[in-house]
Amino acid sequence: MPSPSPERVTVVYAGQSWSWATWIEYRLAYAGVVPESARWDPLHTRPEPERLTSLLAGPGKLLLLIDDWFVRFDDARRQAWADVLAEVMPREGHRIAALSVTAATLPPAAERLGRVVPLRGLDADRAAAVLLDLLDVTPPSGGPVSLDRQHGPRFPEERPGIDNAPRHNRDFTGRERVLERMHRAFTEGGEGTRIALRGPGGIGKTQTATEYIHRYKGEYDLVWWVRAAVRPRAREDFARLADKLGVEVDTGDALRSRIEAAKRALGDRTRWLVVLDGAEDPKDLEALLPDGPAGHLVVTTPRKEWRRWVGEEIELPPFDRAESVDFACRRSGRLTADSADRLAAAVEDHPLLMDQTAAWVELNQTADIDAYITRIRDGNPHAVPVVPSEEYRKQFQVAWGQTVNTLREKHPNAYELLSLFAFFSPDVIPLGLVQSVRAGDLPEHLVSLVTEPSSWNTALRVLSEATSTRLEYEQGPMDIQTVGTLRMHRLFHRFVRGHLGPEEARQAAETARRVLVAADPRRPGQRVHWSRYAEVIPHLEPTGALNSTDLDVRALVLNCIEYLRVRGEYREGRQLSKSAVAAWTTTSAETDPSVLRAVHQLANMERRLGNYAEAERIGREALGRTTADPERSPIQVLRAKNGLGGTLMALGRYDEARLLYEDAVEQAATDLGDHEVPRTLDIRGNLAIALRLLGRYEESLALHREVLEAYIALSGGRDPATLDAALNTAWTLRLLGRYGEALDLQELNFRLHVEVLGRNHAQALLAQHNLALCLRREGANLRARPLMREARERMLRRHGSGHPETLMLSTDYAMLLRDIGEFDEARELAESAHAGYVRLLGDSHPYVAGALDNCALIQGDQGDSDGALPRAERARAGMERALSTAHLWSIGSAMNTATALARTGRLERAVALGRDALARARTAVGDAHVLTLNLAAGLAQDLEAAGQHEEAESVRREAVHMLTENFFEEHRQVRYMLEGRRPYWDFEPQML
């Protein structure tokens, strides 16, 4: 029978076995044992008997965890520890037990411990049983050893449920103080702690973060690694977390939606760790930072700016000498402690150089180690064919020059791959794209290397061993492990590019560009190909694609830009478009088709980002150059006119936009010969929007309906273009006051948007918003509010508070809140939207005047009539300056100014303004429009207050009669008028 549980067990472990020690302590505590832990540092602990006997001074047993450190000691240190055990075990062996947590075979010196029980390869319950049996511990009440694992540490052999971290580097050495500091920061800070691991290139930030995950992954249910050096790839990596979590995302513009969905899911969880590896500018990655007090975040970065975005910054120093020596000896069995010490001194303990120089020693088994160290320490970069550079220390240049020359002379296949890979992005070399390229797209000397698996795999292995290039494996067909990705350190990557001769570099870059062109699906608008474009984009710059004059390469770049536009990645799209324009105009005419397409996309991106003045400048220059070119194509001119028209509408210059669109429609009919081809329909739809913005609702509706019917015939009822045309039709019906028709159409339209594009697509959010507006006009505020609030919140997460679409939704939501009596919240939101429009558009835009009018209306509702009047008058004057007195928005603003005048007792002016506005409304939209009838009702109230009772009753009676003819008697608009409540006009920014 096992003896009663001992009172105490001391678990002795090295830092890398922390997760095992923690799990063992938890299990022992559950079994009634009092566990203690004693951490030891294998590098700095001298093998002396007192190291063990001091741990045995107290009661209980000593449990030694034998891990990779003991296995990898050099022979001298291993023998020294064997001698210590030989002295201690005869006296204290009954109190010492040993567990092995390494997969490696234990050396003979471990026999001094007697029976060493392995835990690797067992499941959690079996490992617990073995542990308790080894220590003669009886489980509580003789019950099972299983326990609820949800709250305790995870068994180290079990990975977190979601984990995409890089493979553990078994050669990792040292960094104990840094790792302890990281763990202490997370432990003391709790959920929501963010830290930055900072240091220069090659210092080991990525490896330290990987080691932290290996040691402490038992504390997490989710570990997610983001390659953050390049913003587009970082966003793609983060977005994939949404797929792993299985959270709801849309089926259309999925990237932003997936990022936001992943962040929301993280906010609802605990016990997660996200790593942003290789982060540069914090502003580029701000959208990826998880919100709220949940989880842990590690940022590895060379940049000091991150200290503003994290709670703690940890500086990563070079190796200390003991770490350097141990690491070098692990990396190469040829190095002794003495030669490793001299090598470390030569490279100043720099981790990346230690790794690569030790790798060179191991690869070159017959090389003279002392001579190699001397060359690094005393050598001149000119002694090897290396171009000296101030970017690297002398040691870097000599060591890397030696490595590259050795590959060229002894391993030509590995050298050829290294030369090619130097012209891809170093973060993830696209091995799959290289292997899938046609033989005809490869130079002759690479064909057999790339297409013959054994040559390919051998070259990759040699390259990895010689340069410390990280290989990541993935599951291939028939469960065969294949190399999936390869990572090259950025410093070394830049060195290799500079090391190549001009002809070598030209040929490698050209081959890399051919690989990318071959990978182009040529369908950037189709979601199935989006992952391929996301994979290609980081390689455009290093391959020199932006500077190429090859038409296929330029087509690839333009497809990547279009992909970014479709995905809503406007910042990246602007940057890539701008780079393409700058590069291509140095070698091609400004009227070159590829240049014009890039310019068009640049203007498009600027407009989408709200930079309207810049978009107009670019668009006007492009249109001027295109129309002046005698060899222009009709499509180029139409594209330029269509883009500039959109910018003019955004700038509030609606009549200019109308004239431009009318000209474009006429040209399209002449040049394309059909009113119902997609490009012509697009232009006609934009003309209808321009007419709507001018208040010419009937004309706009007729044209929108023609476009909608044409799209249905051309593409069917579920095509995104058809859905957009239906949305615009419903929007215009609502503005005409035909609320029932608008609501019926918009309910169907919104349902189809969700089915086809998903709830988070930008167009679907606008459809949802219009549905809420239709419900509001029908008096269904309780249904409208959650729809409008949700659409606004999603748009806010997507674009931020200052984006044009967010401002539009915020403006409308403020007025809905006013309708239901929540004046304080409505006022705050309306004032914020007005300020946003001022920042975006300046003081003279009609949207600024309309947003100000909304603020004045709510201010008057709150009882501040004196403060509201001057703002209402300023808004009316601004609207009339921007659009003319005949525009419907100017007429609506006059209605609100009359209200402000009446509220301050200025009845004579209120009546005069009301009469004038009513006359203008009848001219603009007729006697039966809701705006006209509301003006009549407001005038009747002011006439009554001014003592003109007979005229007041006549005007009111006629307005009620006409309103009842348009709506049923219980309709909100009719009840509102019959109750004698003051009519109003609220400004609605229009969808462009």
Question: Would you give an account of this structure?
Answer:
By secondary structure, this protein is of the alpha/beta class. The chain has 44 helices and 13 strands. Strands 6-8-9-10-7-11 form a 6-stranded parallel β-sheet, with helices on both faces. A 5-stranded parallel β-sheet has the order 2-1-3-4-5. Helix 15 packs across helix 16 (412-421) and helix 32 (720-735) runs antiparallel to helix 33 (739-757). Mean pLDDT is 86; it is low at 142-149 and 381-392.
What's the N-to-C terminus distance? 83 Å
Shape: elongated
Q: Which strand order do you get reading across the main beta sheet?
A: 6-8-9-10-7-11
Strand content: 5-15%
The gyration radius over C-alpha positions equals 36 Å
Report the strand count: 13
Major sheet characteristics:
6 strands, parallel
Are there runs of 5+ residues with pLDDT below 50, and where?
142-149, 381-392
Q: What is the compact description of this entry?
A:
The chain is α/β, with parallel strands linked by helices and about 1000 residues long. The protein contains 44 helices and 13 strands.
